[in-house]
Amino acid sequence: MPAPKFRERLAARLLDIAERVLAEEGLAAVQARRITSEADCAVGTLYNIYGDLDALIVCVHERTLRLLGASLEIASRGAARAAPADRLMALALAYRDFAVVHRHRWKALFQHVLPDGQEVPASYEAQQGELLGLIERCLADHVADAGELRTAARSLFGSAHGIITLALEGKLGGATDAELEAQLRFLVESTARGLDMGKF
Amino acid sequence: MPAPKFRERLAARLLDIAERVLAEEGLAAVQARRITSEADCAVGTLYNIYGDLDALIVCVHERTLRLLGASLEIASRGAARAAPADRLMALALAYRDFAVVHRHRWKALFQHVLPDGQEVPASYEAQQGELLGLIERCLADHVADAGELRTAARSLFGSAHGIITLALEGKLGGATDAELEAQLRFLVESTARGLDMGKF
């Protein structure tokens, strides 16, 4: 059992390596043997520190969510004085850009399946909640009920996520950038009109 | 090289086996060795007939799309006299039901990535177009421009697909059936109001 300080440094090193491998090569490349060999430690040490490989991957996802959050915050601030519908569109486009630029990180969030019975930690859910909060803030003046607001934000996120995923994966016969943007605009415009958000 | 009739029967047998394996065990279980061993033929025969395993899998997908089309047609007919928005909701729920019941078939449509440079055959695209046509018909009285109608239908399909995928895969902290339905309803209601489809 390594001493506390050494253990902390090793935990950080394993996470850094896993993050780099996932970002550069994708989820499938994150293998215990590969990560520990680069960290110059035994495979058992990874399990000793993180419990299992999935828990280490979830730590990488949390870094991805923070990075995504920073991108969305910037987009949200940039459109702070715009109408709510324009703020929604800015968020959708920023999410699309993140998916394009951080392709492997983004795909891994949705590809990664936890073993049966294992759940993501509360910190992960809290981060997801913060990101969805950015959408909720755009809708808040137009959806009074807290439960409905929660549902509306999740509906919109799932919708934009679906449109973007199908386009980037080349399903539905592939979509140009302009076509993807037009599909997102239809979604946001409909929502804005449906909620009487005023001008778009 | 097998004689024509024998070859046709073998092609059908390989397809039937691949379809059953994919439907029961998922895309990853569809391996050339497994399929040909069950069909009592050499691995090379599969390549000889289909070109490669991916082409055989695309043939399975075409059967899946036909099955999906039949489900959506039934839902569409059942709601034929309802308002367009209610027809859209019926389609969304039928798509959700298909994804639940034919889980492996449905996942495989989106998991399966063709090798670089290979494209789905025209027959596959035509079938996709027919399914999207069911959505277009619900919107046709409210979107005059043919290009916009095409975009609107693809936007709606991608949206419903995204909401359903995240819910069934347990992302976003998991959603109950009622929550999934509420998210789909928010999407359809917004679209209906946005397009002035009248009562919902």
Secondary structure: number of strands of chain A: 0
Which strand-content bin applies to the residues of chain A? Answer: under 5%
The chain pair forming the largest interface, with residue counts per chain, is:
A-B, 42 and 42 residues
Mean pLDDT of chain A: 93
Structural class of chain A: mainly alpha
Query: Over the alpha carbons, how many angstroms does the gyration radius of chain A reach?
Result: 19 Å
The backbone outline of chain A, from C-alpha atoms, is elongated
The largest sheet of chain A, given as strand count, sense and whether it forms a barrel, is: none
The secondary-structure element order of chain A is: HHHHHHHHH
- Termini of chain A, distance in Å? 60 Å
Please tally the helical runs of chain A, counting DSSP H or I stretches of 4 or more residues: 9
Helix content of chain A: over 70%
Low-pLDDT sequence parts of chain A: none
Task: Classify the oligomer.
Answer: homodimer
What secondary-structure arrangement, pairings included, does this model have?
The structure is a homodimer of 200-residue chains.
Chain A (H helix, E strand, L loop, with lengths): L3 H22 L6 H7 L4 H8 L2 H26 L5 H18 L1 H9 L10 H18 L6 H23 L8 H18 L6
Helix pairs in contact in A: 1-4, 1-6, 4-5, 4-7, 5-6, 5-7, 5-8, 5-9, 7-8, 8-9
